[in-house]
Design brief:
This protein is of the alpha+beta class. It is about 45% helix and about 10% strand. It has seven helices and six strands. It has a four-stranded antiparallel β-sheet with strand order 1-2-3-4. A two-stranded parallel sheet has the order 5-6. The chain is rod-shaped, with a radius of gyration of 45 Å. The two termini are about 90 Å apart.
């Protein structure tokens, strides 16, 4: 004849030794179970204290049980409640899972098996939530990436811009030249650098130079490619800056 009482007492002693502070006896009136027998509460977290908890939210579960008269040949009375941050819907799913496992383990001490199953389920359930949150954060970060707009820079667009820029620059230079300089041949013109270094740009509009003087030979030439050739890298930077301002 099976001594159920002895088997139950042996299991309680083993649970106390293994679970230590996570195992305690509670009044039957606080258990939520329909029994006047001894009731016990086991605190369960998704992972051990030594494990890395950074990837799993802090949740805590209470598994409450009481031995029935013919346990382990019949399942124990079991209930679960949240000690921290476990939704009611999850508690219902877990309770059904534990009831099924209890039926599958009839004939042997099963409470510690149920504890392990509950801990594994919590770990899987709430680590999945963390993965889902991480995926949502990653998608949100992608949405926040600013996609640049505007005309792409190609060789053709840059060359077209440079031609326009050089034409505008030549026009500005021409405005600075005396009218007499525009009518002379290139051989008699001063280069732009020579004209500016001579200081004549500051005296534009002064009395005209007498005919036959040596200065008559020093006519300004703003078309000298050697003196006003722009560095293409600098011009590209200028073009990109203008393109950016136009886009904004």
């Amino acid at each position: 004849m099976t001594d159920y009482k002895q088997e139950q007492d042996m299991e309680i002693e083993a649970l106390e030794a293994i679970l230590m502070d996570d195992f305690k006896e509670i009044p039957s009136s606080e258990s939520g179970l329909n029994t006047s027998n001894r009731c016990f509460q086991i605190t369960i977290c998704p992972q051990d204290d030594e494990a890395d908890e950074s990837n799993i939210p802090l949740v805590r579960l209470a598994l409450i049980f009481s031995h029935t008269e013919r346990y382990p040949d019949e399942p124990p009375l079991v209930s679960v409640k949240s000690l921290k941050a476990i939704p009611m819907g999850d508690l219902k799913v877990l309770k059904e899972k534990l009831d099924q496992e209890a039926e599958e383990n009839l004939g042997m001490a099963m409470v510690y098996t149920l504890v392990g199953s509950a801990k594994e389920w919590l770990s899987e359930r709430f680590s999945q939530d963390v993965e889902d949150d991480s995926n949502e954060e990653a998608e949100a970060a992608k949405d926040e990436i600013i996609v640049p707009h505007g005309e792409p820079v190609t060789v053709e667009t840059f060359l077209a811009w440079r031609e326009k820029f050089e034409a505008e620059l030549a026009l500005e230079r021409a405005k600075l030249m005396p009218d007499s300089a525009l009518a002379v041949t290139k051989e008699k013109r001063l280069t732009g650098r020579q004209w500016f270094e001579s200081g004549r740009h500051s005296s534009k509009g002064a009395a005209p130079i007498a005919e036959g003087s040596e200065e008559d030979e020093e006519i300004i030439d703003f078309d000298d490619d050697d003196d006003f050739e722009d560095d293409e890298d600098d011009m590209l930077e200028h073009y990109l800056a203008e393109s950016t301002e136009a886009t904004n």
